[in-house]
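Lab meeting notes turned into a lecture example. A postdoc, R.K., suggested we walk through two folding results consecutively so the class can see how the record format repeats. The first protein's sequence and structure tokens come next.
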Amino acid sequence: AVMPDVHVGKGATVGSVIPTKHAIIPAAVGVDIGCGMNAIRLNLKSSQLPDNLSGLRHAIERKVPVGFDLHKQVKAKASTLTPLDKRLQPIISKHPGLVRMLRKFDMTWQKQLGTLGGGNHFIELCLDENQDVWIMLHSGSRG
């Protein structure tokens, strides 16, 4: 089985799914470390979507920076940033070179929240067999 982001990797196919007893390993390859996928069912049915989704697509494209772009200002609330910063600090302490990789490290990671990344990353509307609408996201490690 594979995830929707399947592509060639080093040593194994990125996006391979490895079933195990009592667990599923959705990311067997570490070369895309930092990428994440999430699917959320919305409270919409397919019949509630407009016939033409281009307006929705353009609205998403205006709000979500892609590639190396980031938000011009921090969009996340302090109640979101504080817990993330607390979890980030032990990583930075262990790997101080991470901070030197980016100018204005703190502002950069904060402005990257809510961005997509580049390459094979995507935002997608999906329908399931019950005609429920889902939004699926594959976002990148952002370098």
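The second example is placed directly after the first for contrast:
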Amino acid sequence: MITNNNFLKELKYKNPKALDYILDIYGNLIYRIAYMNLNSKELSEECVNDVLMKVWLSIDGYDYPEDKFKNWIAAIAKYTSIDILRKEKKHFNNVPDEDLNIFSTEELENEYITKEELLIVKKYITHFKEIDRNIFIQRFFMNKSLKEIAEMYNLSPKAVNLRIIRARKKLTELIIKE
């Protein structure tokens, strides 16, 4: 069982449950920091995932007392959200004005997904629970809103969002293992 006393050690041993523990304990903090900088729910969720990935990949370099972990993860969240904001501003400034009316955000995102990446994602979502796989497909392949998905599965939009965050995290873990 992961506790406040052993989560760092378990994280260094690459125990995925330690990452779940961090999401449960620090997820809200990371999200709030991201939202303060990004002012966007979607970008803030992306930032949470990016922060968790950075913690997962760089935990071996963490060499501070356990009581400083909150400050460390908050700093990662702050600078990751600033990086995302810079990328978004740079991307927005590089789009000609006439293109802003033609493409939706979803269409722009879909342009960047290659067929190879799509095949990799499809391969790994087969490892998900059926409901999580269906929610993931509805959200990212069929572009349904959280509200629509929530109504389909008789869940709250918050519950659907949490399942999506966890599914993204699991997908990231599966890809890293390979």
